[in-house]
Amino acid sequence: MKIKNMILAAVLAATTIITGCGGQDSASTGAGNSGNKIVVGLDDEFPPMGFRDENNEITGFDVDLAKEAAKRLGREVEFKAIDWSSKEAELKSKRIDVLWNGLDITPERQENMLFSKPYMENRQIVFVRHDNTSLSIMDESGLAGLTVGTQSASTAEEYINEKTALKESIKELKSYGDFTSAFMDLENGRLDVVVGDEIVGRYYISKHPDKIDALNVVIGPISQFGIAFRKDDTTLRDEVQKTFDEMVKDGAAGKISEQWFGKDLVTRSEG
């Protein structure tokens, strides 16, 4: 009887070890290990990348890309609105599996997240009110003495905060939960300028003609958008990357871009 108990204990111990080694696989089966679902975290006030339409449904360029990728993978996809300033914590805690929402690839973010290859380029530029003809801004030094708005935890905010001389020259830097709120304050005269993503700003302008102008003034380096995953979730990253590469090759990604921007802006990455 004692020998039988020892054998049973050994089998149970082996089973525990095998189960414990399955962390990598379970990480790619959906937030909270919820089967075959991929949970995409996004800022739902970030048009045209991800936002809510008139029916309160989440839509957008990145949303359509993610839907197409999930369909090809044969997996369900859920879009979850999150506090964008807590995006890394949401990913690490496994409340979401992917960040797919116009996320710039930066060295700091690469330390904590695993990225896809870049799929789109983006510039941080200056936006002014259409009727403001007094401002003459040629480069970032032109922001001196102005009240500047941007989105909290955005690439623009990070860049300004890192450039001590630039930040100190600005009269006031106001951070908003989303760019839409910043543009509304710009329209209403509570800001002198907004610094933010060119793609997002130009989309906003297309919906609010004769309200805001985009200046061809680049603030900081030109960035590249990537899809972010948990640092150790190479399985899901590789699956999505392979599928996205196929979407680029067969023209599906380009067609989605044309629907949103009128042209194919998707980056063709090598390797």
What does the largest sheet look like?
Answer: 6 strands, mixed
Anisotropy-based shape: globular
- SSE string, helices as H and strands as E: HHEEEEHEHEHEEEEHHEHEHEEHH
Helical content band: 25-40%
Extended strand count: 14
Question: Can you tell me the residue ranges where pLDDT is under 50 for at least 5 consecutive residues?
Answer: 1-29
Structural class: alpha/beta
Rg over CA atoms: 22 Å
The number of helical elements comes to 11
Our estimate of the beta-strand percent is: 15-25%
Oligomerization status of the protein chains? single chain
Written overview of the protein:
By secondary structure, the protein is an alpha/beta fold. The chain contains 11 helices and 14 strands. The chain has helices at 2-20, 23-27, 61-73, 87-92, 107-110, 155-162, 164-169, 179-187, 198-207, 234-249, 252-261; strands spanning 38-42, 45-46, 50-52, 58-59, 77-81, 98-104, 113-115, 120-122, 124-129, 147-151, 172-176, 193-197, 212-218, 223-230. A hairpin with a 3-residue loop joins strand 2 (45-46) and strand 3. The longest helix is centred in the N-terminal third of the chain and has 19 residues, at 2-20. The model is unreliable at 1-29 (pLDDT under 50).
